[in-house]
TrEMBL record:
Its EC number is 6.3.5.3. It holds the Pfam family PurS. Its main location: cytoplasm. GO terms for biological process: 'de novo' IMP biosynthetic process. GO terms for molecular function: ATP binding; phosphoribosylformylglycinamidine synthase activity. Part of the FGAM synthase complex composed of 1 PurL, 1 PurQ and 2 PurS subunits. This is Phosphoribosylformylglycinamidine synthase subunit PurS. Part of the phosphoribosylformylglycinamidine synthase complex involved in the purines biosynthetic pathway. Catalyzes the ATP-dependent conversion of formylglycinamide ribonucleotide (FGAR) and glutamine to yield formylglycinamidine ribonucleotide (FGAM) and glutamate. The FGAM synthase complex is composed of three subunits. PurQ produces an ammonia molecule by converting glutamine to glutamate. PurL transfers the ammonia molecule to FGAR to form FGAM in an ATP-dependent manner. One of its GO terms (cellular component) is cytoplasm. It catalyses: N(2)-formyl-N(1)-(5-phospho-beta-D-ribosyl)glycinamide + L-glutamine + ATP + H2O = 2-formamido-N(1)-(5-O-phospho-beta-D-ribosyl)acetamidine + L-glutamate + ADP + phosphate + H(+).
Length: 83
């Protein structure tokens, strides 16, 4: 059994209103030193077997077609160690 993690973030050129709202809340709540915040999504996918290169490639294909909108989002895929 293995866990593959897909992190999805808005591309840097895309405005992130939710991130801006969180950034504002940091200041209002007294947290200092926060220059910017970007909001994203994290998917943890449990495989029923090893994280072979083929299995990870299949997750990457799923991320590109199902989990992320490639027009406005980037994603990274990695195998989580120790699972």
């Amino acid at each position: 059994m293995a866990r593959v993690v897909v992190d999805v973030m808005l591309k840097s050129e895309i405005l992130d209103p939710q991130g801006k709202a969180v950034q504002g809340a940091f200041g209002r709540l007294g947290f200092e030193g926060v220059a910017s915040v970007r909001q994203g999504k994290r998917f943890e996918i449990e495989l029923d077997s090893e994280a072979t290169p083929e299995a990870v490639a299949e997750i990457e294909r799923a991320a590109a077609t199902l989990l992320a909108n490639p027009v406005i989002e980037d994603f990274t895929v990695h195998v989580e160690a120790g699972v």
